[in-house]
Each structure stands twice: as C-alpha cells, then as structure tokens.
Amino acid sequence: MGYKLLDSGYGKKLEAFGDVVLERPSPHALWRPSFPKLWDKIDLSFSREKGWKGEKRSWIATFADLAFHFAPTDFGHVGFFPEHQSLWSLCPFAKGQKVLNLFGYTGAFSIRAAKQGAFVTHVDASKPAVLWAKKNAAENHIDSIRWIVEDAMKFLKKEQRRGSLYDGIIMDPPSFGRGAKGEVFQIETDLLDLLDGVFSILKKNRSYLLVSCHTPGFTPLILEQMLGKNRKGGCKRIELFLGDSSQVQIPAGVGVFWQSPC
What we know:
CATH architecture of the largest domain: 3-Layer(aba) Sandwich
Strand content: 25-35%
CATH topology of the largest domain: Rossmann fold
Order of helices and strands: EEEEEEEEHEHEHEEEHEHEE
C-alpha cells in the first residue's frame, strides 16, 4: 500500500503512508471533513505549535514498484511528497540519459530515473537528506546514483566550467533554504539566476526540465514566464493536487515541464 488521502477539512489533511495514518495541517482545506469517524484512528499528528503527537517511528511503504523509508521530521514532513508521484510519468527517463536532480531531498525522483536506466546526479545541500536518499536507493537495490552534498548554484557553476551537459534536469527549489556552507537561497530573488544556470548545462536538443515548487503565491504561469518566453521548446503548466477525482482534492503546489525542440 502506498499513499492515500483519506479525508480533509478544517485546515487539516488525513493521510495514509502505507499502514501509518497521519494528521497534518493543510491551510487550503477550508471545507468540512467528509468522513469524521476516520479521524478517530490516527497514528501520528503534527501541529506547528506543538510538533508531533504519537509514537515517533520510522517505517517503509511502497509506491508503484519503489520502496521508501519514512520518519517524522521537525518541519512536519515524513520524507516523501506524494503529489510528486504524478510527475514521474511526465519525465521521459530512458536508458543512458544523463539526469540531474537539484534539491533532490530524499531521492524519489533520482531513484525513479535510475530505475529506468538513466545516469543520475543527485544534489542537495543537506547531508542528512542525502544520507536518507542513499538509504532509499539501497532499499530499491540502486547503486548507480552519483551523490553530491553542495549548494545548487555552486554546483551548476562548476558543471558549466567543466562543460557538463544533461539530457534532463529536475528541481523542486524551496521557498527559502541554506546551502552546505550557509549560502542563502530565496526563490523570489534567486530562481531566475538558477534557471539561467540550469539552461547553460542542458543539451540544446532532446532535453527537458521539470520545475516544481510549493511557494505561496507562485502559479504555473509565473513559473512559465520565469523560464522565459523566448526559449525555444514546449512548456506545460502543472497544478499539483493531493487526492483523486472521486474526492475533494487539495492544492499541493505548482510546476512547469519544458522540452527542447527535437
């Protein structure tokens, strides 16, 4: 069993990651819950004021054909963003491709790409996140990923000097973050330069870029226009949701998928 949005409402969401049921904040869920009785059976709950309530533990759950380690974090996360699963099939990962995953977190995209035969470079400024990603890769018997603990912009500049080129780049930049040596990233002021760096190491033909974010106020249209209307290729705007069409869905971020001309 993978992920399921069980219910939502009153500013919260009720989720199952495998057999563990979580209650977490969801500011967009302004409606009434549909299944009040389900909220009586919660393993872990999180609030920004009090943190986690319940037995903190780690566990493993399977999504499609991949397995991941889960654990509560201080920010209310558990190591996986389920809304990203809908993006896996959007990226044309293929055997022999060079793929870069910036802000790679715990490695879901990296593992998916490697599973489909791509040569993956996974970059994140957080050493604990990279160690978590390595653990997930080992759980899926993947040992071909190149792991880098470094600030994203510094890594891009190094790759540009080295003349490295990639077939595909994936990134989910934070609203605000700090690099391995205290570098500050703020999406409103730094994303444009980051995108310039990304396009400098993308192959000119048959390449692709996926950008997603969870920053309040950002829309797919904003992201598309930050990519640049003058860049040749096709661009698809993406709205991310939790839940399926049979229930009330929760907005969960935005994205754009860009492909170069063939």
